Amino acid sequence: MLPRDVVFEIHCRDYINRHAISDREYLKEIGKGLYLDMCAYDHSCRPNTVYTCKGFIATLRGLNPNVNLSDRSTTFYAYIELTCSLQQRKKLLKDTWYFDCQCERCTDKTDNLLTSVICPYCPKEDKVAVCIFGDSTYKNKEAKTVLCHKCNTIIPQDYIMEALTTMNFIDRIFDDREVEQMPRKTQLEFLEDLLARAGQTLPDVNVYLCKIIQNLIGIVKPSDNETLLKLHQKAEQCVRKCFPHNHPAVAFHLRNIGIFLQNIGQTEKAVKYLLEAQEILEFTLDKEHCMTMKNQALLNDALAELRQKRQNVKNGTENTENVAEQVVPEEEKPVPDQSSLENVVEISNELINAIEEKSLKKIEEVLEVPKVPKQENGSSDKNQSKKQKKQQKQQQNQANGNSKNEKSPAVESESGKVTDLTQISQPAKTEQLTQNGTEKETRRETKKVVVCDDLYSDNMDDLPELVQ
């Protein structure tokens, strides 16, 4: 039996040197492993390598082409979770591995953006993150004031205290797992309200706001693509800040955004995210890795959908061009005189009213038919000449004929020619409607062509480069 102090020392060595073993998709931890070779590499909060697991076999992979795995002095991987603030990381490393981290990330002043606040004086549409921790030329340690680097306004201390209280509250409820004890519906309502309130003082890059989103994503319905998309996009800035560019966690996040975009019909944007995720996975992992193959399948589906959309738009454009060839150009179309049309319509209405009243006098007035001169007093029909009787009879027949043919009244135009009113008014209106309809259809099809030119290239083999 080994002495108690020796057993305790072995336990401590095992505890601080063991590594988590996850499934190939990094969705859950399946055990712990003691890998002595990897124990020889130091930690960095901004690692240039990542280890992957295939069963119990761990493989160390570089995140950029300049990594030399044989040089342990320049090769690092992360011992802890990277979505933590500077203060959290230092405390965790000190409590577990007993050292003060002075890596590249911990000495980078911009890392304090993870605990920044929103400037209350800058416009809402242009939110500015102001660092309240770390050294900065915009901070006055003696006066204990923080200045916004954009609007040069001092951030009120009570506003900063409110933001600090919010971050401490978020940290406590997740460390104590208070949210997990709530019913699912209550969790959703509580986290949504907390996200809305915290978002008034904390920017999207704030890691504590990202923690709310991380827990909220797990309880939102998988079918609610729009909500999940908004949450992932809101956390994107923080994820890119915490992880190196080629880290698989970044690819996983971008892949999810691409999936939600494609589900809501925004295939063009989905291709952009899926392409970036594919490049990361192929570089960091390999083409035969399950995550790489699944993302490639999603990318192929999105590209196929884009090709189909382009073909549909192209076919629609060709049909429109064929129809446009048969349409008379706008310049060649006769433009009716609106003033003359109004006069024609007015005359036509008066004529219809006169016919309905069966008033020959009104009909003559409308048509301006020459009236038969009245005979002087004492004259009779017997004294009228045959010529006058014949002329009067023709005029009466003409008026009676017009009253019977109500739909085709005639009027003498300014040129002196008798013109069919129906031929003036009705075709002119129809032609005007056709003209307006043609203009509307032309604008719609032209818009399609413009959209097609913006979204697609003539050579669909070059589509990835175009979208990228």
From TrEMBL:
Residues 313-323, 420-437 have a biased composition (Polar residues). It comes from the Eukaryota. Transmembrane segments: none annotated. Residues 311-341, 371-448 are annotated as: Disordered. GO terms for cellular component: nucleus. Residues 404-417, 438-448 have a biased composition (Basic and acidic residues). Residues 393-403 have a biased composition (Low complexity). This is SET domain-containing protein. Coiled coil: none annotated. Gene3D superfamilies: SET domain (2.170.270.10), Tetratricopeptide repeat domain (1.25.40.10).
